[in-house]
Design goal:
mainly alpha; 3-stranded parallel beta sheet
């Protein structure tokens, strides 16, 4: 799902930021995340990623990061108060079983379907960004572009002499950005 989100954010003319882009062992993970939250106006949080680990315990990283983002918006000053976020979960009301404190928030269900995720991110950003020319393509077109891109990834990796499983977040972001720049579609 994160590949689909990276792709649609780039199609919308933005650059997706992630703690995965920073490989600096001198900085703690929470400091990386806090710095990114402080620097970004928009945040996408998929709280469905709370699967149980090998010890039977859930990972609450995404809900925790959402809490930091909402806290920055609520208690921050200036630009922090203008933050906007999109919150995903697999089902419309599943989140109430593990993070009921966000009841009343508009949670977007994605059903683990990349096309729904891409359309939701596109629509949210289209409503959040200033109007632009050319307009952001619709969700169906973005999914079609993503499918073309996914089919090209093995060849792109061969050209870069890197195995798909070796791609870092930064590698993937560069490949997406380069592919979109070179794409012949007038929609991009």
């Amino acid at each position: 799902m994160s590949d689909a989100i990276v792709f649609v954010v780039f199609v919308c003319g933005l650059i997706l930021r992630s703690a995965l882009e920073i490989d600096d062992a001198s900085q703690t993970r929470i400091d990386k995340i806090a710095a990114l939250i402080g620097a970004c106006r928009w945040g996408i949080h998929d709280i469905s990623r709370v699967e149980l680990n090998e010890h039977g315990l859930p990972r609450f990283n995404m809900p925790f990061e959402l809490g930091l983002f909402l806290g920055a918006r609520r208690f921050g000053v200036g630009g922090q108060r203008r933050k906007s976020c999109l919150v995903f979960d697999t089902d419309p009301f599943r989140f109430q079983k593990f993070i009921s404190d966000i009841s009343g928030q508009d949670i977007t269900p994605h059903g683990d379907h990349p096309g729904r995720i891409m359309a939701a991110v596109r629509n949210w950003l289209s409503n959040s960004l200033p109007p632009r020319e050319p307009a952001i393509p619709g969700g169906t077109e973005i999914k079609r572009l993503f499918d073309r891109f996914e089919a090209d990834v093995p060849e792109l990796c061969r050209e870069l002499r890197i195995e798909i499983h070796e791609l870092t977040f930064a590698d993937y972001a560069r490949i997406v950005s380069s592919w979109l720049r070179d794409a012949e579609s007038p929609a991009v």
